Amino acid sequence: MKSITPFFIILECLLMLVSPSTGQQHFFYKVPPPPGTIFRHVTGIAQDARGYMWFATKKGLFRYDGYQMSSYKHNPKDSGSIKTDALEAICVDGKGFIWIATFGKGLERFDPATGIFTHFQHNDKNPESLSSDWVPSLLADRQGTLWVGTANGLDKYDPRTGGFIHYRNDPNDAGSLGCNSVVSIYEDRQGTLWVGTGSVY
Known about the structure:
Blueprint: E1 8-10, E2 16-18, E3 25-30, E4 42-47, E5 53-57, E6 60-64, E7 69-72, E8 87-92, E9 98-102, E10 107-111, E11 116-120, E12 137-140, E13 146-150, E14 153-158, E15 163-167, E16 182-187, E17 193-197
């Protein structure tokens, strides 16, 4: 795979900036999408263990191998395809699965080995289902745990059951989640999770 480490990659435009403090030049190189495709709102970027770059966009999922782009689109005739092309965030877990947050269609797990997407959505009849189909943020922490920020709280994925453990605001508990709209998640050097909340959309 061609190395792209020395460069800054930008998907929307080609720029060249000069740092006033050092005089060092920084080059931004445009990575073209597949023929006949345009990028719209790149909402998330991740890299897997093989070095592939993955891009979540409002027009589907893209993989870059250092030479060219491959795209993954919703196919209404294929239940194993991605549920929607309107994507919000992306991360890669320790097992190599690609997790994709969507705009109103829940959570997607992509297995690069099989090319199949598994769908996780909210179900009122299942208390262990995803809290909401609006998923703005994702994090795979250093312990291998997947955290999902939704419009109705923070979810932790349980791989043993395929369900989710929910963390939500409780007005009677000062130690509970402050707001149910979870828009960002970060893990610091000490392994502490930081949860950003507020209006989702």
